[in-house]
Amino acid sequence: MSLFKPYKVLLILGNGFDLSLNLPTSYNSFLESDLFKMRVNFKHYPNAKFDEHDRIIHNYLTRQRGLKNWIDVEMELMRYASKQRVVYYNDQGGSLHTSNASDGTIQTYYNILCLDLQTYMSSLDYTGFNTDSPSLSLLKTVLEKKRNDVVSFNYTDITKLVSHPRGTLEYMHGNINDGIILGFQRFDNMAPGYEYMIKSENPLYKSRHLSAKMLTADEVIIYGHSLGETDHCYFKPFFDEQTSERAKPRKLTIFTLDKTSRASITQQMVVLSDKKYDLFQDHTDVNVIETANNDQEVKTYIEGLKKKMKRFGFF
User: Fold this and answer.
1) What are the tens digits of pLDDT across the range 143-165?
2) Which of 114, 149, 178, 202 shows the greatest Cβ crowding within 10 Å of its Cβ?
C-alpha cells in the first residue's frame, strides 16, 4: 500500500465524448434515423391549427430542428412543457381555446420517444469506433485506478469501450441496458401535467451524488459536456462552494471542441457562479482544452495526469 494519499479523479462525460469516438449518439443523429422519422406525422390533424400537430412530440422536435439545423432534445422538451407554449384547438361549438396542459396523447408520444431513443442507442455498431482517440485513452487512464470515478451523462455502454474497469462507473440518466431518462429538472414556468418529464421523478432515477463527488475529488475532468441548463442542478453546488468563503483550492479541467463551444461553456460557468466567475477562478484552477485538431495537447495532459496519479499513490 502506498504511503501517500491517492490522487482522486472524477471524469464527467457528455455527448462530445461519444462524438470524439465517431459514435453517432447525438440527438441530431437520432432525429435523422428511420426509427424517428416513421413517427413524424404532420397529416394527423389536417384541419386543425398548425400547433395542434405538436401533440405528437416528434412533429414538434422536427419543426424545431428545422429552424436551427441542430437540436438539444431535452432543452426543446423543456420549452415544450413551458407555459409560454400555446396549443390551439376547437371545441364542439367551434370556439377557439388555448391550452398548454399535457394530455394522454402527449404522454403517449413522449413514452414512445424514450423507447425509440433507447432502441436507437442499442442498435449502434461499436466495432467501428475510433480506438486511437485521445479521449478513449483518457477514459482508460482514469478507470485504471480504483479510487477514481467516471460519471456519464450519455447512454453509451462504456463497458464496450473499456474492458475490466477498476474505477467506479455510473450513468446519470440510465443506459441502453436498464432504460433511459429523458427530460428536464422542475422549473418555475412549467405547464401543468408534465411531471412525467422531470428527470428526478422518473422511476429509473437514482442519485449519483455528483456534487459530493466533485467536492471530494482532487481533480474534476469534464469531457464533452456543455454544462447546459437542463443539468445545472448537478453542477450548481460545486460552483456555489467555489464562490464561497469556505472554498478550497480545486482543479477543474474541461475538454471541449473549439473556440465556439469554449465560449458557450464559459457563459454557462458565469451563470452557474451567479456572475462571480472571477471569484470562482480565484478559488479554482480552471483549464479549458480545445480538442479540435489538438490531439497532442490532450495526450500531453494525459501523460501529466498519469504522473500525478502515480506520484500520489497506486490504489
Assistant:
1) 999 999 999 999 999 999 998 89
2) 149
